Structure formats: structure tokens, C-alpha cells
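Predict structure. Input: KpsF/GutQ family sugar-phosphate isomerase, 321 residues.
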Amino acid sequence: MTEKGLGVADYIETARRVIGVEIAGLEALSAGLGDEFSRAVEMILAVRGRVIVSGMGKSGHVGRKIAATFASTGTPAQFVHPAEASHGDLGMVTEADLALVLSNSGETPELADLIAHTRRFSIPLIGVAARPQSTLMRQADLALVLPAAPEACGNGIVPTTSTTMTLALGDALAIALMEHRQFTPEHFRTFHPGGKLGALLAKVGDLMHTDLPLVAQDAPMSEALLVISQKGYGVTGVVDDAGALIGIITDGDLRRHMQGLLDLNASAVMTPAPRTIAPGALAEAALAQMQDRKITCLFAVEDGMPRGILHIHDCLRAGLV
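Output follows.
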């Protein structure tokens, strides 16, 4: 028990009550989606410039996240603070843009100059608020009304359910836009080159080595052993007269042909038709192949020709695991 008489069970009960109230709000938001949401997506798709997201206080914090999600999923966006907009930042909002303005009450005074600016220059305005008759919603070209749902604090003064619903609505818009644009993981990586996410979306071609261990199919095994030793990958590829990859020699192949090894050539020892991967494939897919087959290397092949080699250690260094 704490000094105020609340125990661990009380904290957990509070947490579950808060989450339950917010879940109910999200369910109401989902059930209430209609033509206005589809129109909002179409309006944003038609924008030649950026989506300017704005909001004050907690709505502003949510707005920053929505703008960041838009920008990282193929919809150019920028957050503009409404107070800063009144002191010069309105110049960031052009006639090619669209304004997405967030305010639970729809009467936030700091939004007045931004709203007036959009009306003066015929900049499309989408309002998000819980009061359909508020100033913001009456001025907006399109109103996305949040459902009437209690805040999780119980007394209606702490933005909780309202901000959760606004955030979810922003995510829904971003993903609808992303799917319409057929935004792929490769596109996503362009905006997320760093960290774990960047590693997961790295391509084989980004990590592979091009100084390849290769020998001709009729090369003596003494030459193949020298290449394996010099290159340091523990394997060598075997190519035909045209340079196409036809096999691979691993330490397992060496053990299987230990007796009389130096009397053989590469084609007699190699494992034919080895597992390969395309340079444009995700490195994560290459790692999955190596782990599934319990191998340490994959040749990157394009049109039958070896273009690179990827070692499992390259994946580890890149942060794939």
C-alpha cells in the first residue's frame, strides 16, 4: 500500500479503465467514418504542394506526429505552429498547399490567423474537431467530426480520448493515401535510411561485396582452394565459359571430396545450382534464406551472372538481427 492508501491493483485498474474508455472512443470513431473521410483523402491526393498540419497544445503534439507520418509515407507534409504562424510563419502556407487543422473544441483562438489566411487565399482547409458548429468546422471546406466520447480522466479536462482519436484519424488518412499511391517498402526506405527500420529495408545490393570469389568450372582444385583462402568468405563460386554461376564450393564440399581432392577440378567438387538472390531483393529476405538453409553466404545473381556476394556477418553488421 502507498501512503495514500492506493495499491498496485488500484493502479492497474485505473490503467485498464483509461484504456477501455479510449478503445470505446476509437470504436465510435471507426463506426462514424463516412463520405467525409473519403473526400478528405481525395482532397489531399489533389494537392500540388504540402499538407500543412496545425494545432495548439496537445492537438499540436498530435499534429506533429501526423505530419511526420504523412511525410514518411509519401505525402509531403509540414507542421506549422499556429502561434508562430501569426508571427511570420504564415508565409510557409502557400496556395498550392492544403491545411489540416486540429482542435478538439474548434474554438482555439490561436488558430484564427491561420484559418483566415486559408480563406483569404482559397487554400483548402480540412478541420478536425468534436464540435461540428464550432468556428473551425464552419470555416473548413471539409469537416471531420470526432464522435462525442468522454475523456479518460473522468472529468473531461485532460485531453486523452480526444487526442487518441485524432491521432488514429491521422494514421488512417496516412495509410489510405499510402495504399492509394502503392507506396512500397523500397519507397519507405528512402525516408528511413537509418536505424533498425533502415536495416530491415536495406537491399542486398547495398550490403553485398563485388570482389567475388570465382573460379572456372575446369579450374584445378588447387586454384579453387587458393581463391577460397584469399577472398575470406569460406566459399567460391564456379562459373561456366560465359561467366554464369553454375555452382558453389563450400567447406562441406571439400570434406566430402577430401580423398584425392587435388586431383579433381572445380566442377567435380561443386554443389550445382546453388541458392542465390537478386541484388534488388531485401537484405532481410537474404538473411531469412541463410538462416533457413543454415548457410553463411549467398551469391547475388542477375540474369544468371554473379554480381556480388552477401555474408551473414554483413547482415549482422547492418543491424538486421
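The chain has two domains: 8-183, 204-317.
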